[in-house]
Amino acid sequence: MELAFAQDADTARPLHLVGRDDLESWLDGRPEATRAWLTAVGFTAELGQVMALPDADGGCSGAVFGMGTPQDRARGRFWLGRAPAALPAGDWTLEGALDAEEAAEAALAWLLAGYRFTRYSGTPAITPRLVVPEGVDGGSIQAIAAGEALTRDLINTPASDMGPAELEQAAFDVAVEFGAAMSVTTGDDLLEANFPMIHAVGRASPRAPRLIDMRWGSDGPRLTLVGKGVCFDTGGLSLKSGASMGLMKKDMGGAAGVLGLARMIMALDLPVRLRVLIPAVENAVSGASFRPQDILTSRKGLTVEINNTDAEGRLVLADALALADEEKPDLLISMATLTGAARVAVGPDIAPFFTRDNAVAATLASGAAQVRDPVWRLPLHDPYEPMIEPGVADLDNAPKGGFAGATTAALFLHRFVEDAPRYVHFDIYGWQPVAAPSRPKGGVGQGTRAVLAALPSLLDLPA
Asked: Which residues form the Cytosol aminopeptidase domain (predicted)?
């Protein structure tokens, strides 16, 4: 799906952005007919209120969009995403005072409001096009929107059409588009290449497990992204209930997120040496399933006691993180739909992250605020380390007790990263449960725009 801006401002109609406190002064400068019309239809500039303005011939000369109050706008984001569905087709310009960050958010909100998942039903809606607001880099916004659309498409596709092979193809398509190199280790070759936990998790499925390894860029700092690619999660022999299995097509949301972020980075031609690692598996049930109480030996050599086969994401990530760590990247980021505990802690709208580096955490928080992509740091509480040490093996994949599940999972992953100087793990949800402006119900990227905004500072990239 192409999410693009209009090019010709001369033929575009104006969309006036008016706050509730500014409505009277704005109306004072309008023709009497406009004032009478807006009064008659009850326009009060409440946040998200849209009203077309008629011309003398009964057509549409423009429209007005209610901006509410600053307090209203602070309670959410992408409010301008409500406008396109309420406007007639054609090209539009934004008229009103916006600072640089607000204008960029408005432009992205408009593009993302045009996203539709139509692979199986329906056709894309004809969305009014926006002329790029002054001071906004339209090319960058389009690159970000395209990366987000890729993430959404991958998550929204059901597992019947998005298994490990199809996820590999999606990565290959991105690699071809931007001239990246890619290698894939599949099936029993994972054992020979020393990825035993990826193999163990995926071996029960007839859809062979694999490790996808993409590289792009020849100069600059090393940035490695690792995404959990569990294309469907039954829970394995620790079988999920039907209700818990219902959204498990999104369990590859971490892989979808890093692929979307990688696409943004490559489209923006950032001067980095990018590596993307995706362990892609289906956690299925068969005679070949790995079992509770099995002890697996990881790529790093650490042994892991399996106390719940439904805690499989950290196993496949562990082998991929161990590989990433061997190269000592300047920044290592993993993304995964890893724990329900993270959702209990912060809900579905916030992407929690873990890092031991305070400066990295502060930079990510700043980037998140700048682009309205909310993240929240959760603690790597070292006194909880004994919870992931079962005694019969080096590590426990599912500590008993039910406490601090997101933290113990993050502590588990950190055991496989020793040499990368800075490591950040995101425990995302990857799903919009209720439609919101520019975010229809379904798959969604989380944390990716925050990371993108923070990268120049994190990696000391040229402005």
From this structure: 308-315
